[in-house]
Design brief:
By secondary structure, this protein is α/β, with parallel strands linked by helices. Helices cover 31% and strands 15% of the residues. The protein has a seven-stranded parallel β-sheet with strand order 8-7-6-9-10-11-12. Helix 1 packs parallel to helix 12 and helix 5 packs across helix 7 (180-190). The chain binds (2R)-2,3-dihydroxypropanoic acid.
């Protein structure tokens, strides 16, 4: 594969200026191991502090490793709470997260400290929408059960009634949060013959709506969601948005899809509804308290579970890394960050 950084050997040394005096290269901390092309570009342009073992670091360890850094490239899962942000060296000007989600960062603390925070929108839209469709198909067509049967060598052969799932054509997909990813999921689901309903704070213009039916109130939409897919950010307000009360508003046997963040659903209520068959199935790529998800999900036959793979393609992860570096480049050069969140 060709990358912008191909052929460039990572070099953490200080470059010389034209008059022979040493010029300090800005220092960038990469909190996790990143794709090779991204680390190569970071090392080409900066003195990069890498994490070759990919050990997960807590906020205090990130702050310690950032000693001497001008920028930190962090990732989803790095807990950058108020204490960690306060502990970052004063020289750190920008926290560029390798994610579109920013729920792992205390944005108020960053704002108060005058730290620029950036994210990586757009570049992971298609990959995440693809995974949402994989979850819809996997949950509706009982892919986990079939796969387990093959692996356990318990398949006794084709039968007319074996693992019958739900046909997607003609079913209603309800999307809560019709941003870039929600719209990309809608486009894909139309190809399977699904009717699209959505709820979004702002109604989309007709060219983006493409016939999707808008519901100003997400509560009112729940009754028509044969499949419900969540695409809104995790905040204090959206924590456990899908709770027992809202599940009861869905049609019996609805399918739940979550590629947003685990904390937007109440696991206890979802697991109970899956056990009772009130929800027919769930396709989940994200979980509260990852990676220590509620163990109740594992024992259920009607769950199709993935380990937060939404953006996990080589092309997308490279693009996310380059986008994060574009933001660092801008801030360290005194330009406005293209994807500034704070
Ligand atoms: C994001 O970008 O927020 C994803 O969840 C990580 O791929």
């Amino acid at each position: 594969m060709t990358s912008p950084a191909e052929g460039i050997t990572p070099d953490a040394s200080n470059a010389g200026s034209n008059d022979g005096s040493a010029v300090r290269r800005p220092v960038v901390l990469l909190t996790r191991r990143l794709p090779e092309a991204v680390e190569a570009r970071a090392s080409r342009d900066y003195t990069a502090i890498l994490n070759p073992s990919d050990a997960a670091l807590d906020g205090a360890a990130i702050a310690r490793r950032a000693a001497g850094a001008d920028a930190v490239l962090c990732c989803a899962g790095d807990r950058l709470d108020a204490a960690a942000i306060a502990a970052l060296p004063a020289a750190v000007k920008v926290l560029a997260t390798f994610s579109v989600g920013t729920d792992h960062i205390d944005l108020d603390a960053a704002r108060a400290r005058g730290l620029t925070v950036t994210n990586t929108p757009d570049v992971l839209t298609d990959a995440t929408a693809d995974i949402a469709l994989l979850l819809i198909l996997g949950a509706a067509r009982r892919a986990s059960e079939g796969e387990r049967m093959i692996r356990a060598d318990s398949w006794t052969g084709w039968t007319p009634t074996q693992l019958m799932g739900t046909h997607l054509g003609g079913k209603r997909l309800g999307i809560v949060g019709m941003g870039r990813i929600g719209q990309a999921v809608a486009r894909r689901a139309r190809a399977f013959g699904m009717t699209i309903h959505y709820s979004n704070r702002k109604r989309l213009p007709p060219e983006l709506e493409e016939g999707a039916i808008h519901h100003a109130d997400p509560e009112a939409m729940l009754a028509v969601c044969d499949v419900l897919s969540l695409h809104f950010p995790a905040t204090a307000e959206t924590r456990h948005w899908l709770n027992a009360e809202r599940i009861e508003k869905l049609p019996p046997g609805a399918i739940l899809i979550n590629t947003a963040r685990g904390s937007v659903v109440d696991d206890t209520a979802v697991i109970d509804a899956l056990r009772r068959g009130r929800l027919a199935a769930a396709g989940l790529d994200v979980f509260e308290n990852e990676p220590k998800l509620n163990p109740g999900y594992r024992g259920l036959a009607n769950t199709f579970l993935l380990p937060h793979l939404g953006s996990a393609t080589v092309e997308t992860r490279n693009a996310m890394g380059f986008r994060a570096l574009d933001n660092i480049d801008a801030v360290l050069a005194g330009r406005p960050a293209p994807d500034r969140v704070v």
